[in-house]
Amino acid sequence: MRARSAPLPSWRALTALLAAALVVALYGWVLGRSPHVATLAASPPLQVDWQAAAAAAGETQPGAAWQPYAAGVRLPRGGAGGWVRVRPAAGTWPDGEQLLAIEQPGFGAVSRFEAGQERERRCWSDGRAGSDWGLLGGIVFPLDADARRDGALLLRWWPHAELDSRPQFALLAPPQLALRDTMATLSSGALLATLAAFALLALPVGALLREPAFFAYALYLGSYALLQLMVTGLAYSPLPVAPLAAAPQWWGRLATGVAVWAATVFLSGFADLRRHAPRMRWLVLAVGWAVLLPTLSAQFGGEALRALVRQLINPLLMLSGPLLLLAAGWAWWRGSRYAGFFFVGWMPLLTITALDSASVLDAPPGTALGDYGALGAALFEAFVLMLGLGDRAYALRGALEQAHRLAGTDALTGLPNRRGWRDALQAQPADVIVYADLDHFKALNDRYGHAHGDEALSWVGAALKARLRRGDRAARYGGEEFVVALYDCSAAEALAWAEALRRDIARLDIDAGGRPLTLSIGVAVRRPAERIERWLERADAAMYAAKQGGRDRVVLAGDDSVSAAA
Predict the structure, then answer these.
(1) What is the predicted pLDDT for the residue at 273?
(2) In whole angstroms, what is the distance from residue 232 CA to residue 370 CA?
(3) Which stretches of 77-173 are DSSP H helices?
(4) Which CATH number applies to 41-172?
(5) DSSP secondary-structure letter at 79?
(6) In the CATH hierarchy, which top-level class contains the domain 11-33+182-401?
(7) What value, to the nearest 5°, has the Cα angle with vertex 302 and ends 254 and 300?
(8) Which end of the chain is more exposed for a tag (fewer CB within 10 A), N or C?
């Protein structure tokens, strides 16, 4: 088995990860100390009882068997629904205007009954629905004279076929409710805006780097943000989004299926499961498709198909989270650096979701964990995964830059090749071009072989680099040809520099088939507005003139003067 690699070896990455945890923790602490928490804590205690509705939907009176309602109780989604009775624990209602705030009421409708008659039916996705009072993600009923006379508020919970509900109740004065609603809107909006910003930021980066993992991340985070937009109630109030408000369950199912599928695709590419956990990769992708395809089919099918999909989808959703965490942990152990980012980022959200689903985490509304636990964990996950994507982008950018350098570099001499040199010359034209060609190089290859010829080329390249001035650019132009771009250089200075280079190569004392390996050099000074192609042609012609004049010499283009061989 491979040794475990450290996926977060950089102290900068560890520092950023710690900063993310501290930011989210500080955010939760601030929310926990905020005024709306204090007002809810100071609200009068209530006695809440419930029972299943055993009669037909049209009956207006509940049966006789009441059960105390606790934070972890789930009201049934089957049958005829249930009844809830809310009374003051002190026996009498407090004076003044009071409002019953129902947090997390679920997707089903809630009716208020008085004197055996239904007075009002509301659903939390209706927003304020014409009422003077509203609560983000909740329902508000006023405590009127009839409720005070009867001593209790009687509520009917109409069932929802897909989701249970675990409502929480608080009696608030209007200023307390307004503060609660404002704080919930601002806090949820800020968290969701951050998630959406991360998703949008990943798109241009992915397009720039041509990295599919960034698009999968954006799709996952965008779908999750859309789901939370509905769960928190921001999609319905204070600025309702008409399509979401009209069909919340349709959009919720779609967002859930797409989010799970995108998370599996993202993990597969981001953590490189193909390499580090190939067998688990197929299982992860299979679960993603197994969630997405039934979800999409249920969106456009009948009620029978939706009922069948509901039986299949919930176990798959429960399986998908731990499976992704297990696959990330295994790939991390097997050496995937980026699987570590996924594992660390996914763990808090999965833990809160699992504990909440198992009714172990009974954090009531009005607390930072109860209101924003999942959103805070999602923000932490988005921060950590964005950190990993940033690290990935930095690595990809380095790899692309290295590939670009290699594409423009001669592997034998380490000098730029023809392409790299011409691109640099095009971007910043020089004053003089020096065009050099080795003499008798073919004889050297024929006598000693190409391996010895390659060694000679590397020696010449090293001598050329040692002779360069600051800012000058040299390249192996092809075969045994070399070019140099000289900057801030006159014709006389260029001839002196080329002559020094010629002597350097002669001193290498390389045998070229019974004669020393020497250099023929042409020098061309750029004329005003001269094209680079024409400039190179003149330098090349000067080099051939050096060849024809006896080799091992320097010739200035357009000038008959020749430097004699040493």
Answers:
(1) 92
(2) 12
(3) 145-150
(4) 2.60.120
(5) T
(6) mainly alpha
(7) 35
(8) N
